[in-house]
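Summary of Year 1 activities. Much of the first year was spent building the evaluation harness for sequence design. The harness presents a backbone, in tokenized form, and records the residue chosen at every position. We chose the following record to illustrate the format because it has been used consistently in internal testing since the harness was completed.
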């Protein structure tokens, strides 16, 4: 365009979806997981500020869920 060379990239974001030059979804999955982890951490911090008891309940439920899932192995 206008005699300006295009820049080659390995990852391109279009309409909120990350595409890599090898057409794999690993970058998209990684970005989604990072976003979910950030949101979870924010909720846990907010719960701690509001009520330490509610944070204990949340962590207890997470631990019970992980223990139940891993006990079937």
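For this record, the design step produced the sequence shown next.
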């Amino acid at each position: 365009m206008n005699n300006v060379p295009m820049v080659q990239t390995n990852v391109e974001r279009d309409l909120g979806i990350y595409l890599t030059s090898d057409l794999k979804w690993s970058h998209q999955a990684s970005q989604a997981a990072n976003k979910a982890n950030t949101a979870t951490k924010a909720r846990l911090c907010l719960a701690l500020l509001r009520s330490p008891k509610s944070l204990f309940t949340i962590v207890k439920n997470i631990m019970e869920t992980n223990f139940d899932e891993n006990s079937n192995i």
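The chain is about 60% helix and 10% strand. Quantitative recovery figures across the full test set are reported in Table 2.
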